[in-house]
Design goal:
There is one protein chain. The mean pLDDT is 90. The protein has two domains: 6-148 and 284-301, Rossmann fold, CATH 3.40.50; 150-282, Rossmann fold (3-Layer(aba) Sandwich), CATH 3.40.50. The two termini are 16 Å apart. The strands form four sheets. It has a six-stranded parallel beta sheet, with helices on both faces. 44% of the residues are buried. α1 (14-24) packs across α8 (285-301). It has 302 residues and is α/β, with parallel strands linked by helices. It is 32% helix and 25% strand.
């Protein structure tokens, strides 16, 4: 029987790697990672990777900072004889620029996909921002698996907020919010969103007359500037509804977003643990571990 893969955590991903190890039974490998004073990265594998499958765990918020250590981790493992390199990236960056919006721009989602595909043999992520790309297969040349956050969010809602009404931030979110609502056995609606700029968002709230006695829960896939959630909170407050619970899959909270959202009169902010943040309460590790083992089984037969 072949040995199980070794899991290696890039900096900041240690907790997720330990949870994946516990859920899969795969061992967390030992290595040394350091940064020289001039900013260059150096790594040394202490666990034997020759002939083994290696799984790198690296969520890709702040991707420009994380990419070089990740690239070196994969390349050195390959140089030392690793059989396959898998990448578990709970948050997958560079999905927003999926079209050429202005002259002189590039479709950077495709370029980033080509780069990751050049050093990994497979990829697992959680709810990537798919808009004009309908699947990762359109831009990634390696096998990929998307783990849905909806079941994990719904399980959290059933346990903590059984009397919730789920609210999506815009019409594009309706299908996703509806899926969570169905799994959580609760009602849902969506808001209409008009964006006037990077930091200006206007949101209109549907008729809320039948929401009395229910806890409003705002759902969004990515909380970046948080302006969408803030605008929605203001409208819910104006409609006489109680402070909402805000749930995000990917808690990026760029700049002052976290502070601004805290000041918007929210009851609570909860996120999945795809990006390390104080709001993390919903664990994606069990679902990621299951996907990881399924991907390993398929790649081992190939």
């Amino acid at each position: 029987m072949s040995e199980t893969p070794l899991i290696f955590a890039l900096p900041g991903n240690e907790a997720m790697a330990q949870q994946l190890s516990a859920a899969s039974g795969w061992q967390v490998g030992a290595w040394q990672l350091q940064r020289f004073p001039d900013g260059e990265s150096k790594l040394r594998y202490l666990s034997q990777v020759q002939g083994r499958d290696v799984v790198l765990v690296c969520t890709l918020d702040q991707p420009d900072m994380r990419l070089m250590p990740l690239y070196l981790a994969a390349s050195v493992a390959r140089e030392l004889g690793a059989r396959r390199i898998g990448l578990v990236a709970p948050y997958l960056a560079y999905m927003r620029q999926d079209a050429r919006f202005h002259p002189g721009e590039g479709i950077t989602s495709a370029h980033f996909a080509r780069l990751l595909s050049s050093f990994a043999d497979w990829l697992i992520t959680v709810d990537p921002h798919l808009h004009r790309h309908h699947s990762l297969d359109e831009i990634y040349s390696i096998p990929s698996k998307v783990v849905a956050a909806a079941p994990s969010i719904a399980a959290w809602l059933r346990l903590h907020l059984p009397q919730a009404v789920l609210i999506g931030p815009d019409e594009e979110s309706e299908q996703w919010v509806a899926a969570v609502a169905q799994l959580a056995a609760c009602r849902h609606t969506v808001l209409r969103k008009v964006r006037h700029g990077d930091h200006e968002v206007e949101v209109s709230v549907p008729d809320s007359a039948n929401w009395q006695g229910l806890q409003p829960v705002l759902l969004d896939d990515i909380a970046s500037t948080a302006r969408t959630m803030v605008a929605a909170c203001n409208h819910l407050h104006a409609a006489g509804l109680p402070p909402p619970v805000c749930i995000a899959v990917h808690a990026l909270f760029a700049g002052d977003a976290w502070q601004v959202l805290q000041q918007a009169g929210v009851a609570q902010v909860v996120s999945c643990d795809t990006v390390l943040h104080i709001s993390n309460q919903i664990s994606m590790a069990p679902a990621l571990a299951q996907a990881m083992m399924e991907m390993q089984a398929v790649s081992s037969r190939a």
